[in-house]
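Final report, closing paragraph on structural work. Over the funding period we assembled a curated collection of sequence-structure pairs, and we close with a single example.
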Amino acid sequence: MPHAPQQAEFATAELDTALRGGPFHVALRAAIAARGLPLQRVQHHLTRYGVKVGVTSLSYWQQGARRPQRPESLRAVRALEEILRLPDESLIRLLAEADEHASAGRPGVRSYRSLVRASDVLRGLLAELDCPPGGGPHVLGHHERVLIGPRRELAGRESEHIVRAHRDGVDRFVAVHHGDPGCAPERMTVHALENCRTGRIRRHHDTGVLVAELLFDTRLRAGDTFLFRHAVQDGTAGTTCEYVREFASPGGQYALQVRFDAGALPVRCHRFTQASAAAPRSGRRELPVSERHRSVHLVEPRVRSGTVGVGWEWE
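Its predicted structure, as stored:
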C-alpha cells in the first residue's frame, strides 16, 4: 500500500492532469481529494465566502451529474478556486470549454480560444492608435442597432454613443467591431453619421477585428458631454446566430436591438450574460420576436464588466 507521501504525490499529479484537460467534475474531484477535505468542510469554507451551496450539490458537481450554471453557483466555483488553492479561473475555464464543446458547429459562435486571441490582437491594434485601456471618454450611454440580412448574416450595425470627457483635450473615440468567423474585415466599411468623422482604421483578417478612430470636430473639456453616431457595414461572413458586446469595466446604459430581414426570421431568441471569456454563460431569458416588428431588444440600465448578448435559433 502506498505511503502517505506517495499518495499525496499521486493526488497532486492527478490534479495537474485534470486541470489541464478537464473535464470540470474530474478536476473538482481531484482538487478536493488533493486537499483532503470532506464535502462538509468545503461547504463550511464556502459559507465564509458568503456562498450557500448544499453538500448534495457539491457531490453532484464532482460526480458530473450536474454542472454549476446559476450566478450563485458560479460564485461558488470562483470561491472554490481560492479554497482549494487553484489558479485563478482554472475551474471556470473548464466550465466555459464544456459550453464551447456543446456549441461546436453552431454558425457564428466564437470559441473561448478565439476570443482570447482576438483580445490579444485588439490590444495590439489599440496600441497602434495610441489608445491605452481606459484612455477614451467615459460612456454614459450606448444604443446599438444590429441588422441581420437575408442570408442570415451580420449585415451591419449602427451605434449611438453619449460620452463624457474625464480630462481636457478629448477629441476622439475608438470604436471596435468584431466580425463573425470567416468574415473579411478588409471589405467592411465604417461610416461617420453624426458629429464625427472617420480617422485611422486598423483591421486584422484572421480574428475579424476592426478598430476605427471617430474624430470629433471639437476638443472636449473635463466634464463635457458629447453625442455621436457611426455605422459599420459588414455582411462578409456566413450565417450567424448571436451578437455580443463586451464591457471591460462598469459603465452607463446599454441598449441593443437586433432586427431581422423579413425573409430570415429566427424561431427563438434569448438574451444572456457572461462574466468573462473564461466563464460559462448565464442569465438566459427568452425574448419574443414578432413577424410584424422583426426585432428583439435588451436594455442594461448600468452595464457590468463582462459580456451581454442576444442569441437565436434558425429552423
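Helices lie at 4-21, 24-35, 39-48, 55-63, 71-83, 90-102, 112-128. Residues 4-102 form one domain. We thank the funder for supporting this effort.
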